[in-house]
Amino acid sequence: MATETTKVADGVDTHAADAAHGGADAVGMPQLDVSTFANQVFWLCVALVVTYLILSRVALPRIAAVLAERQGTITNDIAAAEELKKAAADAEAAYDKALADARAEAARIADETKAEMKRVLEDIQAGRFVQRFMMDNMVGNPEMKASRSRQEAHPIEEVGTRLRAMMPWIGDNKLVDKAKN
Prior knowledge:
Elements: E1 8-9, E2 12-13, H1 14-20, H2 37-126, H3 128-138, H4 142-152, H5 155-165
Antiparallel strand pairs: 1-2
């Protein structure tokens, strides 16, 4: 048989060439060849040691540094969030207090206004308002002039003047003319 005999032609062993190219005498996968296990185990150990050294000296310290930085950032962010939460709670408490104070002040003003309205209504019903108005007209309206002066000096009039200055439709020959209205 031609495959079993070894022929040397031009310096080439044809039997070895047939085995290398899948001939009948081929052993199989070189990784499973028992005669090379010791060599394979040695190089596997070398590769694992080199991989371990590279990871432990280069990659893992970098990963550890990134994780430590990330943990520091998270800790700082949590601390900042807690501070902001406390500030928000303080602001809410201040707002609630201001709101309660404003409600109490509004209730006080409403009570004072009701009492004053009741007094004025009693004056009108009893006729005292008309008598005072007539007497004021007879002497040149000093009470009415004083009332108008107090109203013109009220802080709301200053605010109104500044607001009207911001409104372009109010002025001479405009939609609203303060001199005429």
